[in-house]
Amino acid sequence: DATVKRKWYALVFQEAERGFRMRTTPSTHGSLLVLGELLQLEGIAEEIPQGGGITSMFETVMSYKDHRDALIRHTVVAVLPVVARLDAVAFRTTLAEPCLAHLVDALRRGQEPGAAYTTLGKLFTVAGTWVLEPWIPEILRLVREGITPSARRANLDEAIVCLSMLAIAEPQNPHVMEQMPDLIEHMLAASHGTLPRPLVTTLAAIGGAMPLLLPDIQMKLLDAISFTLQRTPYQPSGTPSHRRIAPLRSPSSAVRGGEVGSAGNEARQRAVTRALEALTEFDLTGNHLCEFVKDCVAPYLEDPSPQVRLTAARTCSALLLRAGDVSKRGRSARLVNQVLDQLLITAVGDPDPAIRLSVLQSLAPRFDSFLAQADCVRSLFVAVNDEVFAVREAAIQTIGRLMLRNPAHAMPPMRHTLVQLLMALENGREDKREKASRLIGHVIIASHHLLKPYVAPVLQHVLPKLSDPNPNVAANVLKAIGEMSRIGGAEIERCQDSIFPLMIEALQDKSSSMKRMVATRTLGLMVQNTGSVIEPYQRYPKLLSIMLARLQAEQVTEIRVEHIKVMGILGAIDPHTVKVIESQAEGEAGTGIVHRASKRGEDGLPVSSSEEYYPAFAIGK
Fold first, then answer.
1. pLDDT tens for residues 90-100?
2. What kind and span of H or E run contains 565?
3. Whether the predicted pLDDT of 136 surpasses 70
4. Mean pLDDT score of the chain, rounded to an integer?
């Protein structure tokens, strides 16, 4: 309610003013914090009490800029951008000059440099060009000081971010355009090869705001990354061999600079990791990096550090065959093949299962034309036998994309894998049965129509597991049957009498929502792929009443939505026919009970005492 909100805003403002009047350090600090949070609320400008406009707020905050307590001075600097955004026009007109003067003076004196750089960056967009113009040379000088490390402190990330905000706010300013290339080189040199994330983000922001500088930024960043990885400058793809500089540092020696676990070793690992991450964080479009990846990045797949190996694997897969790299033959194709071979060796042989899994997950569909080669397929099937279940699952999913590209090399080992999984499902322990049933579903999805000749024998092995005591096994088998119906609808239709009763039972299983969800979806897939609409209602008279009851009682929204979808797939059936079918079922279920449907007079209509008399009479007439 707007009235209640206005009332509480006024009370909060009054409490903040009372805190300022108390003149104690805790109360002043608390009032500044409350004021900063309150002024960030949407539409708060209209709720400020009378006499409390931006000028009054600014004067109140600035009155504490020289407070003896450093915490209050820090809070004053942090609150200034919030006050400025309250009324940007009024701030530019009268308040921007004293605010910028205070921040520049604070940076000159070295007071609260981190907060001052952050606040200065936030004010660039509010202050406007004509206000900033006389201050830009001094701001650039202070930013240069901030990004230059000294004996007393390291370079400030806030100064780096401030420079990016200045480039975004004033990309056409002649002072900014003139000094920016030198500042970029200065930032990269000051990072000493560590390439922190704020630096890479700032370079990306500058490249976006000043497109003419982007190629130069790319080359300087690639030079810095190359020096970090192999102590040589970046050598573009196609550089003649006689002009190439041999690497001065191998990956192993790059990280084994000292004893294992030493500070120098850890620092080196962090620098290499950040250099590899920077390759994927920055937009390097326009540079062909296949050769760079092979020479500088791929060697780190054998690094002693698991974190370095993991980052190297992700970087290799991210940089190969990027958008715009359409060449899949010639020298580029050979380079991609060589890097993919190293990635597959890592996916199979790395001692860390997280790295093996990450490599397999990073093999995107754009690599399929290379992965479908016989050697790659064989390597992927080695990963299918991995000791870690998630790795096996990822390997089968990857192979699934390759089945139609190279069925001659992929299908025979996939059949062998399917036989092994069926034996594990039939004879294994509970945990093995659960994993085998899940992998069978992946194999069926992966095999596409190539599995069609084997649908019948697979069904013979999986159908008994629909009544497995483990609900996850039963749910996975149901899901596999639903996927098989896509490729072998005729075989599924012949086994309907064995599947439907168990599926109807699964629809009513209150102990497992997953089992109910899978059973509902599988029912829809079976009906859809066998074309047997309406017929299930006639063959299983209780199906409609069960589905209607579950639709009303089901608590999980997703399952209810699936129920409605499946009922739409099954089709509409005449209510009179439903009653006839149910009455027949009740008559067959009892002993000595005559079918109600058989109680008909000489004219063929049901007798008047039957429930079906009036609907049948109306339809007949």
1. 888 888 888 88
2. helix 557-570
3. yes
4. 82
What's the pLDDT score for residue 232? 84
Work out the number of other CB atoms within 10 angstroms of the CB of residue 520. Answer: 27
Do residues 562 and 549 touch, judged by C-beta distance below 8 A? no
- Two structure tokens written together for 508: 């009513």
CA distance 219 to 287: 9
Amino acid (one-letter) located at 596: R
142 Cβ neighbours under 8 A, 6+ residues apart: 104, 107, 108, 159
Closest CA to 220 of 238, 199, 241: 199
pTM (2 decimals)? 0.77
Beta bridge partners of 606: 600
The DSSP element (H or E) to which 497 belongs, if any, is: helix 496-507
Task: Identify the helix (H) or strand (E) that includes residue 364.
Answer: none
Q: Which of 538, 532, 543 is nearest to 569 (CA)?
A: 532
pLDDT(210) > 70: yes
311, 276 in Cβ contact below 8 A?
yes
Report how far residue 327's alpha carbon sits from residue 237's, in angstroms, rounded to the nearest whole number: 14
Query: CB-based burial of residue 593 (10 Å sphere; 0-12 exposed, 13-18 middle, 19+ buried)?
Result: exposed
Write down how long the chain is: 621
| DSSP state, residue 621 | -
Compute the average pLDDT of residues 470-477. Answer: 88
Nearest to 403 by CA among 395, 394, 414: 414
Does residue 591 surpass a pLDDT of 50? no
List the structure tokens of 64: 């504490």
Residue 576 in contact with residue 612, Cβ under 8 Å? yes
Q: Cα torsion at 181, 184, 190, 195 (round to 10°)?
A: -150
DSSP secondary structure letters along 572-619: ---HHHHHHHHHHHHHHHSSSPPPGGG-B-TTSSBPTTSTTHHHHHHH
On whether the CB atoms of residues 118 and 161 are closer than 8 A, the answer is: yes
Any idea which residue has 């096994």 for tokens? 473
3-state secondary structure of 573: coil
Looking at residue 606, its pLDDT comes to 55
- In 462-529, beta strands by DSSP E: none
The tokens of 301 are what? 């797949």
Q: What is the pLDDT of residues 15-47, one digit of tens each?
A: 888 888 888 888 999 988 888 888 787 767 666
Task: End-to-end CA distance of the chain: give it in Å, rounded.
Answer: 63
Arithmetic mean of pLDDT, 294-309: 91
- Give the CA distances from residue 279 to residues 147, 192, 222, 254, in Å, rounded to whole numbers and listed in that order: 22, 17, 8, 18
Whether 166 contacts 121, CB under 8 Å: yes
Label residue 389 by pLDDT band (50, 70, 90): very high
